[in-house]
Amino acid sequence: MRGKSLNNSVSHILQSTDHITAVGNAIVRYGLVVVIAWIGLMKFTASEAMRISQFTSHSPFMSWLNGFLSIRAQSNVIGVIEILTAVLIVLNVVSPRLGAVGGALGALLFVITLSFLFTTPGIGDSAAGGFPALSRLGEFLLKDLVLLGASILALGQSLTAIRLSSGVD
């Protein structure tokens, strides 16, 4: 009797997989939006501008901005791009094409920030018990690997919606 009840519970969960997946996808998409928007809004503060300058000043993708923008202006520009990215990801509900642009921008943002792991001095500290350790700066950047995946997922979902709406299979 107990085994039958367990089997019924497992069967019910398995029948709910589409709903569970949809909830998970929504949390990933809109969680990504909240994180990107929040990070973008923080770029308008002096403390965040100073903090990110240690990354951008060593980046082959971003250090060229030092030639004509102040640290604060660079941070503001990055903030605008991040907020725009978040808005575009949300706009997927009305236009999958805009959502795809947002997902692509998000992926680009996180590829660039992950590159800081390799370009910023002091990211890798000495080994910790035989395992390569990351400094606090490196630990701060490592989350961007998951955010990159979420951006690619958002991009893929938007592209799928575009494909389905255009009748291309």
From TrEMBL:
Biological process, per Gene Ontology: response to hypochlorite
Pfam families given in the database record: DUF417
InterPro entries given in the database record: RclC (IPR016865), RclC-like (IPR007339)
Domain of life: Bacteria
Transmembrane segments: 20-41, 77-94, 100-119, 140-162
Annotated Gene Ontology cellular component terms: plasma membrane
Keywords of the record: Membrane, Transmembrane, Transmembrane helix
Protein name listed in UniProt: DUF417 domain-containing protein
Organism: Mycolicibacterium agri
Organism ancestry: Bacteria, Bacillati, Actinomycetota, Actinomycetes, Mycobacteriales
